[in-house]
Design goal:
About 45% of the residues lie in helices and about 15% in strands. By secondary structure, the protein is an alpha/beta fold. Helix 12 (about 350-385) crosses helix 14 (about 455-470). It starts with a helix and ends with a helix.
Length: about 475
């Protein structure tokens, strides 16, 4: 494709993108296709000769779009948000055009220095400790892996990297019973084995019990195991539990355990000073992650990972091949030594665009509005005679279920709510997901899309009531 052709098609795509952003709520939130529908429309082999762009774009609209779930839809209340914004999209266009591989300072000095500065802006805005260093990872899962690998190396004095795990003690990792599945995955990738994971019981608010952690550590020490890392969560995926950092940090200090905090979703709310209760005790934390690509209007992928001791992170990953040596040395940050992959995208640009376009105050207003909308809807559900709130709103997430009068059997209620969820999602106007609370099937409701307003939440509540009551008859 020649540059002038590119110019023409790019204008066409930008017009389509603007129309999409303006009219996204006209689409069904969740894709309505069946398994195999998309693949059935695709040739079994690649074309031998090139095709015109008009054919590509037509197939994008006719084949791809029906198979897309629209995460930016204001009726998207499933999982956690992966919200976006026009400034972030524009930055992604520039990033793709530049096509830079930002593995070293020298391979794009602006990418490295912008990342360093923007992450320090965020550190200050979130109230994280002075002196912490940040780096952008692709996801919180990768950040958790980095934390567990750094903890493994610190506790073995870097012998695991040099000699392998057979030469070191039996290492164990602790986390809440409500922790994200990425913890177990990271432990397996780190070579510690699934049996090294110690899930710790939680209280009625889904927060890790420090006393149970203390017991587990004592038991492991007595059995000859080596406590290595604790992954605490702020805003668990199922029901938004918040692990108490102060007592957990005290235990970690006493036993020299690396304390990593996964605040993938909830961390964005730290922009609000009134929400900083969740990081009381942050001084004892070794590493911390949150995802601007969840609740800070920055396109996926962009995960902000902070460490108290960047030297430990770099030493864990650093490999100095001859072809990667540059004259700048330790005068710059070569971020390829701060994570698993060598290659790195210029992710800092979109975060910079978002922070400058909205300002911290603008972002605070959006997050505050989401929290307010979730609390308002939870109050309405609590007042309905045939619904009940299973988990009160924590930030912008709560859990509820339909419980019509006359039905008390838990099995029937589980089945009814499972059917309700599928009916809602099949309807295309809203999208929600489920969890289990005290072994009861429960529907999660999360507010977080940039375009979600009160009218969208009110409409969702109307649809939920109508759909639920139609199933009960």
């Amino acid at each position: 494709m020649k540059v002038e052709e590119f110019r023409s098609h790019a204008h066409q795509l930008v017009d389509w993108m603007a129309d999409y952003l303006a009219g996204v709520e006209e689409y069904p939130v969740r894709s309505q296709v069946a398994p195999g529908d998309i693949a059935a429309q695709l040739p079994a082999t690649a074309p031998e000769t090139g095709e015109p762009f008009t054919a590509l774009f037509a197939d994008f609209q006719e084949i791809v779009m029906p198979g897309m779930t629209h995460w930016q839809h204001p009726g998207f209340h499933a999982y956690f948000p992966a919200n976006s914004s026009p400034p972030s999209v524009l930055a992604e266009m520039l990033t793709a055009t530049l096509g830079a591989q930002c593995m070293l300072w020298q391979t794009s000095p602006a990418a490295a220095e912008l990342e360093e500065r923007v992450l320090d802006w965020l550190r200050q805005a979130l109230g994280l400790p002075e002196g912490w260093a940040g780096v952008i990872q692709d996801s919180a899962s990768t950040a958790t892996l980095c934390a567990i690998l750094s903890a493994r190396e610190r506790v073995t004095d870097f012998a695991a990297n040099e000699k392998g795990l057979r030469a070191v003690e039996d290492l164990v990792v602790y986390c809440s019973a409500e922790a994200h599945s990425s913890v177990e995955k990271a432990v397996k990738i780190a070579g510690l084995g699934r049996q090294a994971v110690r899930p710790i019981a939680v209280d009625e608010n889904f927060a890790m019990l420090p006393g149970e952690l203390e017991k587990a550590v004592a038991s492991d020490l007595a059995a000859g195991h080596k406590p290595t890392c604790l992954v605490a969560t702020l805003g668990t995926t199922g029901a938004s539990g918040f692990d108490p950092l102060e007592p957990l940090g005290e235990i970690c200090r006493r036993h020299d355990i690396w304390l990593h905090v996964d605040a993938a979703w909830a961390g964005s709310a730290l922009l609000l000073p009134e929400q900083r209760w969740m990081i009381a005790g942050i001084e004892a934390v070794d590493s911390f992650v949150f995802n601007p690509h969840k609740w800070l209007l920055t396109n996926f992928d962009c995960s902000a990972y902070y460490v108290r001791d960047p030297a430990a992170l770099v030493r864990t990953f650093e490999i100095v091949a001859e072809y990667l040596k540059t004259r700048e040395g330790d005068r710059v940050n070569d971020y390829r030594d701060w994570s698993v992959p060598l290659g790195r995208r210029f992710r800092a640009l979109k975060l910079w665009f978002v922070l400058r376009s909205y300002g911290l105050q603008g972002l605070r207003e959006i997050i505050s509005r989401h929290i307010e909308l979730a609390h308002e809807l939870a109050a309405k559900i609590a007042n309905a005679v045939d619904f009940e709130v299973q988990v009160p709103p924590r930030l912008a997430l709560f859990c509820f279920r339909y419980r019509p009068p006359g039905i008390s059997d838990e099995g029937r209620l589980d089945d009814l709510n499972a059917r309700l969820l599928e009916a809602l999602n099949d309807g295309g106007e809203v999208y929600l997901t489920q969890t289990r609370v005290q072994d009861r099937y429960t529907i999660r409701f999360c507010v977080g899309q940039a375009g979600t307003e009160r009218r969208h939440v009110d409409k969702a509540w109307q649809i939920i009531q109508q759909t639920a009551r139609s199933l009960a008859h």
